[in-house]
Q: What sequence folds into this?
């Protein structure tokens, strides 16, 4: 990205929030290297049933698409738990993992709850926190995330 930014010299760079970790790293790089670039995070685009749009979705069978919906469902469940007052990140991650793994052909790569600016793990959700996950559904590795707001 540094080479591209140096060649193109953009004033604005837009990155999707679906890969929130990438967006955060690029924002930090722009700050560290004093680039005069505004980095904008574009909201994740979702299919009608809630699945985050991705070219990888084409690899999913109809049955796997149903399993893939568990990613968004687990994020929504996590937000509901936070709204109900649960602050223990480990319990929220465990609940999300159980929900995802209850669907066929799912294999969790990671589920994390972290500071949205630094990506440092959070144990307690007492302020906005990023919940990010990567899950294999069949052969497709899917990612999704949500900012959890207490």
A:
């Amino acid at each position: 990205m540094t080479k591209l930014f140096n060649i193109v010299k953009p004033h604005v760079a837009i990155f999707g929030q679906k890969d929130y970790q990438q967006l955060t790293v690029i924002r930090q790089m722009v700050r560290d290297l004093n680039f005069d670039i505004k980095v904008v995070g574009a909201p994740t685009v979702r299919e009608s049933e809630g699945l985050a749009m991705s070219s990888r979705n084409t690899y999913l069978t109809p049955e796997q698409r149903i399993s893939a919906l568990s990613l968004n469902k687990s994020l929504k469940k996590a937000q509901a738990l936070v709204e109900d007052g649960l602050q223990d990140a480990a319990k929220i991650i465990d609940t999300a993992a159980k929900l995802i793994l209850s669907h066929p052909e799912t294999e969790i790569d990671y589920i994390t709850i972290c500071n949205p600016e630094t990506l440092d793990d959070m144990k307690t959700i007492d302020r906005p926190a990023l919940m990010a996950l990567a899950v294999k559904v069949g052969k497709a590795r899917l990612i999704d995330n949500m900012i959890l707001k207490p």
Q: What stands out?
A: The CA atoms of residues 127 and 150 lie 6 Å apart. The mean pLDDT is 97. Helices lie at 2-8, 20-32, 62-83, 89-101. The longest strand covers residues 106-114.
